[in-house]
Design brief:
single chain; alpha/beta; Aspartate Aminotransferase, domain 1; four-stranded mixed beta sheet; 14 helices; 15 strands; binds pyridoxal-5'-phosphate
Length: about 425
Amino acid sequence: MSNTETSPDTLTQQIIDRHDRAMSVNYARYPVAMIRGEGSTLVDASGKEYLDLFAGFGASVLGHCHPDLVATVNDQAQKLWHVGNLFHTEPQTRAAEAISRFGFAGRSFFCHSGADANVGALKLARLHGQKNKGNSTGGRYRVISTLGSFHGRTFGAMEATGQPKVYEGFGPLGPGHVHVKFNDLSAVESAIDDETIAVLVEPIQGEGGVNVPDDGYLAGLRELCDKHDLVLIFDEVWTGVGHTGEYFGHQHWNVTPDVMTLAKGVGGGLPVGVTHVSPKFAELYDWRTHGHAVHATTLGGNCLSMAVTATIFEVLDRDQLVPRAKTLGQQITDRLNRFAESNPTIKAVRGKGLYLGVELDPSASGGRFESGGDVVKACMDRGVLINACQGNVLRIAPALTVEEDVLTRGLDIVEDVLKG
Ligand SMILES: Cc1ncc(COP(=O)(O)O)c(C=O)c1O
């Protein structure tokens, strides 16, 4: 190396030092700076390679720098980036058509994040509650969501989230949110009153620990919402776009919501959020109903992001990646369950497709680890990226394009770390 070149370790440190001086320190980041990615492999500033089994919280659904997405971005970048929603653009319509084709026939509103998409759904529910006041005094507005849920960090999405650590300190909170136990239909039924307007749930609870509901749960919610004229909102920010082995989580149970919210995978690494509304409720957001736009955003639906979203669906379909996720997910689940038979550090393996949670029992590790975070760190040291939530639940959610040998080598290391 010449005197003018920066050594890899120095480069990492420089990036961290500059971060520490310039950035708001909202995140507890690892002392690693990622600089390159291809498929399910990442490379950091020191040249170390990682097998990525978490894909940036599942968002890099086609892996890093997928050639079709790179080509799409390059092509679109030379045509048009952004004009605002006073005009029609073809990529936006193409993305919306794909969501209706692979999900359910509806109308998509595009925004930037999961929180944003949920706010769109909550506001739509309020419009329904103002129009259909029922026995309420000033219009129905209360939303039932579940304990342990996560719906985002904006006002509205934050209050809907069933985890106090997300909203504590930010009071006064917006009114009208009640949280009930996940996977408990009678808890939802008891919480419905004259003011209730919507039920908001994740088909599989993600940040809460990858909790899969009983088979009748979503259908039961559908029945309750129909009976009480409530808007059924499925937050599919994690479960959307193929990770669970169906395009959307609700398809596992064949239950169609009134509104589905998307983010993460639907942008493939770009900031895309979607509030997808069934025809029954679509007129609530139709500007002609109100004489002006009641919900809008400047950059939502920009051409670059939308071209990427449309291509993601094309590639998922062309390469049959969703059924592949189902098959691979079953193989991993079987493998981890076999491992658990002789290794009591694993209490349960949950999830569907390539969205899996592995609940640990650190007390069975003989003091080798105290939490899921310790296991994540040990895996990272050995070049494998996974995640932990709720303290002891490991999350595995690789890209749907993950190479089989990457999966095998990655899981070998995860099991090695658990064995000690
Ligand atoms: C189910 C669910 N909904 C909403 C969100 C919020 O998404 P975003 O971080 O894009 O605002 C998340 C983020 O993890 C999520 O898991």
